[in-house]
Amino acid sequence: MGYQTTVELARHYIDLQRMNGRSTEEIRSNQRQFQHKVLNLQIDLERRLDPLELVFLDRGLPDELAYYEYFNLSPDEKLIEYLDQRLYKKIFIMDLLPLDKDYARTEDAEAQKALHKLIIETYRKRSEPVVMVPVLPPKDRVRFILDNLGLNS
Is pTM beyond 0.70 here? Predict the structure, then answer.
């Protein structure tokens, strides 16, 4: 379709670390350090984006705040500072699909639901409009989002 998207940075970080011989368990053993690394990657990514271009982010900085809350970690000052500086045009939150557990996902279905709830709450506290995207086949989800943005003809 030609739209710019971003990767899920937590998974990207895990992939890079695994290429260097570390296990997912090692990478996730210090949750604060892991969240901090992902936060720095997210900040770096968002800093490099052109605000005039349409970009679909897999996750935004408010997701980080939800993860910090889920793991009972006090948010980094850097996170709070950047949250105050960043605005997104519109937030699309996908309704949950069944959990597809793999090497990078350490959460179970209960944790997935709790995190999803926190992510929704975190975004709804912000000023950007939040649109819930229902469970649909992938092409229909794309159409739903593009229609919502007025991009489908």
Answer: yes
